[in-house]
Design a protein that fits this description.
about 350 residues, 13 helices, about 40% helix, mainly alpha, 3-stranded antiparallel sheet, single chain
């Protein structure tokens, strides 16, 4: 289910967030659960997945592991605070209101082994590392297909659903921070495609996330501000604006590279973005914007199946490159001017079907 972009695009180390018995889903995929709404099983117990996994789990305590490993295997992750639990529940409820539905969640794992416990057992003192502790989850849910398999209004509708759910999660302090075509999936339900913002490995909760010393994202789709010399080591705060820019790059990417739901074999652009590091990609994107502003002909030929979507991509990019530099507290303005206004100007009925929730 992963398209070619993720195959070569580097990612930084993931940051996880802990679970809570009050919310029957795994927080790393809270947005995925919320957007897809009908996850049949999320965070299931291992005996519901595969018998041989059950066998291994039932017997691991019989192994002759050393004391440290035994402590790790038998340990439970410290329960999160009630404040964090409420934050996760509120974010899930808010996103579900967009699609007017409820996820089918049956169970969640309670025995967890976290990187925080591993560090502690090894005697590694790292307060920042403990705040960004990661936990292994097993997630089982309905089959998803890449959004790149869609075209025209079907693609745009699913992309717009993800825009709305991403924004709602961000308002509730769940920050995805790794927008890419590979992380936007869809499934068919009740006569329409439902957009799913997938893969929360690099996400964080604002009040308990990473310290900002690491940069996260998939390089070809990261905001240009995050590809600078200062941003790579984490000296630039990751804002909503940066994820919004990534959503625009995804739209541009698909319009120029996919025809009829398939990756074009001839004449597709942007392959070189996959072959460079962050510094190189910043230059590639800057060159792309220069060509865009000066009317280069090769950027005026999107695939035939994404003609209307290209009009939106062009409008979003134009708005984005003429906007002032990023500031904290401007999220609603960015959503309105960069995304909503441009979608509404080309395909207004999609905004009618999936309106912005301003609450």
């Amino acid at each position: 289910m992963v398209n070619s972009a993720a195959g070569t695009a580097p990612k930084t180390s993931p940051h996880g967030i802990n679970s809570t018995s009050g919310l029957n889903s795994t927080p790393l995929v809270v947005g995925s659960a919320a957007v897809s709404e009908h996850i049949s099983t999320l965070g299931v117990r291992v005996h519901n997945v595969c018998p041989w996994i059950t066998h291994d789990v039932d017997n691991y305590r019989k192994c002759d592991a050393d004391a440290m490993l035994q402590e790790l295997l038998c340990g439970f992750e410290e329960r999160p605070s009630s404040e964090k639990s409420k934050l996760l529940q509120d974010s899930l409820k808010a996103v579900l209101e967009i699609c007017h539905n409820t996820p089918e969640i049956t169970d969640n794992l309670t025995e967890l082994t976290s990187t925080g416990k591993i560090r502690k057992s090894l005697g590694i003192q790292d307060p920042d590392g403990e705040r960004g502790s990661r936990v292994l989850y097993i997630i089982v849910f309905r089959k998803l297909v890449p959004i790149t398999s869609l075209s025209g209004d079907e693609f745009l509708s699913a992309w717009w659903q993800v825009v709305l759910c991403h924004h709602t999660l961000w308002k509730h302090n769940v920050q995805h921070r790794d927008i890419s075509p590979s992380n936007i999936m869809v499934y068919w339900l009740n006569g329409q495609w439902i957009g799913v913002l997938n893969d929360y490995d690099l996400s964080s909760i604002e009040c308990d996330g990473p310290s900002g010393k690491e940069r996260t994202g998939t390089v070809p789709f990261m905001a240009i501000d995050l590809l600078t010399k200062n941003a790579i080591p984490g000296k630039v705060t990751h804002l909503y604006r940066h994820d919004a820019e990534s959503l625009v790059w995804v739209l541009i990417w698909v319009c120029l590279r996919y025809q009829g739901g398939k990756l074009m074999s001839n004449g597709r652009l942007l392959d070189d973005w996959l072959k460079v590091d962050a510094k190189g990609c910043k230059k590639k994107k800057s060159d792309f914007i220069w060509k865009f502003r000066h009317g280069e002909a090769d950027l005026k030929n999107p695939s035939p199946s994404h003609q209307s979507n290209w009009k939106i991509a062009v409008a979003c990019l134009h708005t984005m490159i003429h906007a002032p530099r990023a500031k904290i507290g401007e999220n609603e303005f960015i959503l309105q001017t960069w995304l909503l206004n441009n979608v509404e100007s080309v395909v207004p009925d999609i905004v009618v079907r999936h309106p912005v929730n301003v609450s």
